[in-house]
From TrEMBL:
Catalytic activity of the protein: 7,8-dihydroneopterin = 6-hydroxymethyl-7,8-dihydropterin + glycolaldehyde
Subunit structure, as described in the record: Homotetramer.
Keyword Lyase: yes
Species for this entry: Ferroglobus placidus (strain DSM 10642 / AEDII12DO)
Coiled coil spans: none
Sequence similarity: Belongs to the archaeal dihydroneopterin aldolase family.
Entry protein name: Dihydroneopterin aldolase
Matching SUPFAM superfamilies: MK0786-like
Domain Dihydroneopterin aldolase MtpD C-terminal residue range list: 2-106
An example Gene Ontology molecular-function term: dihydroneopterin aldolase activity
């Protein structure tokens, strides 16, 4: 069941990424966006915990003259914990500066 738990964790993070990249975000709604993203992951089967953080430094750098920007993949840190029967895995989505790409990985 560990393989299924790992697969499910990847699905959760992939869905989160593709569902939310591009939404408008500002300092007025950033905490709400983080909590909404967490809540959406927690609704899914097998999820026992989830956390999302948006990089506030990058948010500040990218604000438009209208005081918001579109959420980009390099701004997101997400962690999900999934349990299938007795097997539990934890995975993260985070930006890899060296590869210049947001990657998912299991925490071992």
């Amino acid at each position: 069941m560990r393989e299924l738990a790992a697969f499910e964790a990847g699905i959760k993070l992939g869905a989160l990424f593709h569902q939310f990249v591009g939404i408008p975000v500002s300092f007025e709604n950033v905490e709400l966006v983080e909590k909404t993203m967490e809540s959406c992951m927690k609704l899914q089967p097998y999820v026992v915990d989830a956390e999302v953080k948006i990089d506030k430094r990058k948010l500040k750098e990218r604000l438009s003259s209208f005081n918001y920007t579109s959420l980009e993949g390099d701004m997101i840190f997400a962690r999900v914990k999934v349990r299938v029967e007795n097997d539990e895995v934890e995975a993260v989505l985070e930006y890899d500066k060296k590869l210049k790409y947001p990657l998912m990985r299991l925490l071992l």
